[in-house]
Amino acid sequence: MTAGTGVYTSRGLAHDLRAVGLRTGDVVLVHSSLRRIGPTEQGAATVVEALRTAVGTEGTIVVPTFTAANSLSSPVHRERVRGMTAQEVDAYREAMPGFDATTTPSTGMGAVAELVRTTPGARRSTHPQTSLAALGPLADVITRDHPLDCLLGEDSPLGHLCRLDARILLLGVGFESCTAFHLGEYRSSDPSVRRYDCVVADGRRADGQPGRRWLSFEDVALDDRDFGRLGAWLEHRRTDTGRGVVRRGRVGAGIARLLPMAHSVDLAVEWFKEHRTAGGGSTGDRIPLTRPPG
User: Fold this and answer.
1) What family name appears in the similarity comment (predicted)?
2) Could you say which of 3, 76, 104, 266 would form a disulfide bridge with 68 (CB–CB 3.0 to 4.6 Å)?
3) CA 58, CA 277: separation in Å to the nearest integer?
């Protein structure tokens, strides 16, 4: 925080991030709430600069850039059409813009994620509902492949991150926002499957307007409703060396948690096995979207 100004600087936040355990060269999946970090000199830009300073030029920053508004199967869409007549719903769906990885903003992921997405040199995966964006030397490797029928599984950027020994940083948000836990659902025995529907951009129509097409696919029925309980359990787990799996500290005005992704996903599989019913647990029809920062 700059003396006398009451705002946090990138230098100060970078110091806090290193104190929590972030290191040069880290690949880190970041979920954040700018409001909970507190006032900064340049808003989200200060936080992104601090993250880049903490991991250095050898490190890679990854953020969720999910898009719920283009999906018929998301809570966002259901809320927007609530109370509409059938004709109004049809008209609304006809006007829904198709997802374009280069231009479509994320939904509810926060200012830091949006700034990473739009930073020159950033790469974004092409999934129309659960894309991730990355900034750094491994950005292309992480985002290059993202199959339609693998929202957040082994062949998605989450799988790549796990294999790259990435770390998870929850910056001012709780475990409810921990996207990586969804990978544990894919690894659970016999997970439930559901249908997803979304609209994507598809060239130009004859009248010059953006073209669109609808996609339908089946994938694991993901559910984040118990991630808070899973995270509370995880905070009491220890590694073989006796250190807690989750490192916790203050970054700016917010609480930050740093945890190893691969080990945390393994523990999530263990927790799901004990605390969820057979077949993958609860089967609510919610699309797996990280909760918007508060």
Assistant:
1) Belongs to the antibiotic N-acetyltransferase family.
2) 76
3) 42
